[in-house]
Input
Amino acid sequence: MSNFLVLSIGLIFVFALAGSYLRHRHLDRVLQDLIGFHVTVRMQSRQIWGNFKLYSNAVELKFSRVYTNHRGTDLTSYIVFKEQMNAIDAVFRYHDELTPQNQQRRIKQIEEARNPGWYRRFKRSLRNFMVAFKEAISESIGMMASRVQQQASLALLKSADGKLKSMGNNILDMAGNAAYDPVLEHYIFSRVVFENTNSDGNKTEYSGILEEYSADWVSVLDCYLNTQDQLSLVDANRLMIQRKMDFELSLEQNSAGAHYTLKIVNTDTQDIRLRRITGPEGFEHKIEKTLGRGQSLDINIQNLPMACLANVDQTRLPVSLQLIAPERSGNEPPGTGDQQSIKPYPSLPELQLDFQTCRRADVYLPRNRGILRHAAELVD
Output
């Protein structure tokens, strides 16, 4: 067998093997920083939260408890495949929802990115070079394949150059995540303003530190967001994940109906404006109180509607829970994951708390929905 034939077949095999390996192992270099963190995904006017897991072709949010949908099916996670990622408006990593261990892990990630070692700098420079000169490298691969074909002059190799060039392009795309932007590169770890357009056509500006970008995503750290949020009161584990408020609640059934009491303590440095508690079938309990740091509020709701108690096991009443962040309660062993504190709490009434406050977050934005609009500090 001709040496040229062996060489050509070998090249095709190596490129095909490398392309297949990278395709199945490839993770977006922006989103991979979120693995193991509790995040909130905003998509098509909905919010979904859970522990973030990343695959080469999807993202998964692991819930803090088992949810049951309207068909009676138990759900433990939400999966968004790559083809559906365009529906995502933004991903938020709220600082007040991180365990102390994950707060330290986040800081370590940022420090490694801000002050990279020689290997990380070399890898980034190589990646940028490969993307910037992708066409030249691709043409070189094609010319090399054509040269082998001419030397061998075998029918088997008629299309080898095209296949090699195509596979070379795929490898270059995955190796560099197909992204090199001179402007974004210039403002890495500088404060910028990123303009994002959500699925409803509304524009939002996020001012923060540009950490990283890829072909599809960009990460903006330390954004301060004046938000109007809804916090589900049905999930005890969810209430313990956030660190802005501590809760004490009780639910009991008597001859007059269901009696629900809730104490809220502001453990944050920012004021919290408590707006209302809402539930199914239009239930609403207005609050309209502002809690300063360390302040608390007691809420009493008599005769809670039965629609709010649909998932409550009334044989387990009365229920009384103190939902305090594990590190403040002193009951949590050291760990690294936000999922470690999950406990089998009983189901609670279908209620949610509407509140306003300023929250600090790292925001992960799809590049097809936004653009770097302004620099927010002087950079040479």
The longest strand covers residues 217-232. The chain has eight helices and 16 strands. Residues 226 and 297 are 22 Å apart (CA to CA).
